Amino acid sequence: MSDKKFVDAVFSELFEKNFSQYKDSLTKPVNSDKDSYAKARNALALLSDEQRLDVVDFLKIAIADSASVILGALDGVHFPDGLEGEFVVSLEGEEIQGDLQDLFIEKAQEDGVYN
């Protein structure tokens, strides 16, 4: 079950922490800051509240797809250009790769990421 523990931890970090921070930052009031978040927030302000939330929620798909590519590479089922070889991923001495991508996608589907 170390593979599930790993996927749950990564999923939590990405969606419960990172996505929540993105959402909070992107839904703050518009201001004249020049950082990336402010620029995105100001651009999103041109949309209706519903449209703005649709765009912010789309970030979940981008996050999930990015993690899926990485986990697929670690599992040995997805080979990004120029990357050849076999990874050995272990947690507490137990090899965990092989199902990481599937477990992650399943969890994302259960959590409604792709809706």
Describe the protein in words.
The chain is mainly alpha-helical. The protein has one domain. The chain has helices spanning 2-26, 36-44, 49-75, 100-110, and strands spanning 90-91, 94-95. The chain has a two-stranded antiparallel sheet with strand order 1-2. α1 (2-26) crosses α4 (100-110) and α3 packs antiparallel against α4 (100-110). The radius of gyration is 17 Å and the shape is elongated. It starts with a helix and ends in a 5-residue tail after the last helix. The mean pLDDT is 93.
Helix-strand makeup class: mainly alpha
| Number of structural domains | 1
Placed side by side, the strands forming the largest sheet appear as 1-2
Mean pLDDT: 93
Summarize the helix and strand pattern as letters.
HHHEEH
Q: Segments where pLDDT lies below 50 for 5+ residues?
A: none
Radius of gyration, in Å, reads 17 Å
How many β-strand runs? 2
Largest sheet: 2 strands, antiparallel
Query: Terminal Cα separation, in Å?
Result: 28 Å
Number of helices: 4
Approximate helicity band: 55-70%
Strand % is under 5%
Q: In one word, what is the shape?
A: elongated
What keywords describe this structure?
2 strands, two-stranded antiparallel ribbon, 115 residues
What is the topology?
Blueprint: H1 2-26, H2 36-44, H3 49-75, E1 90-91, E2 94-95, H4 100-110
Summarize the structure.
This protein has helices at residues 2-26, 36-44, 49-75, 100-110, and strands spanning 90-91, 94-95. The protein has 115 residues and is mainly α.
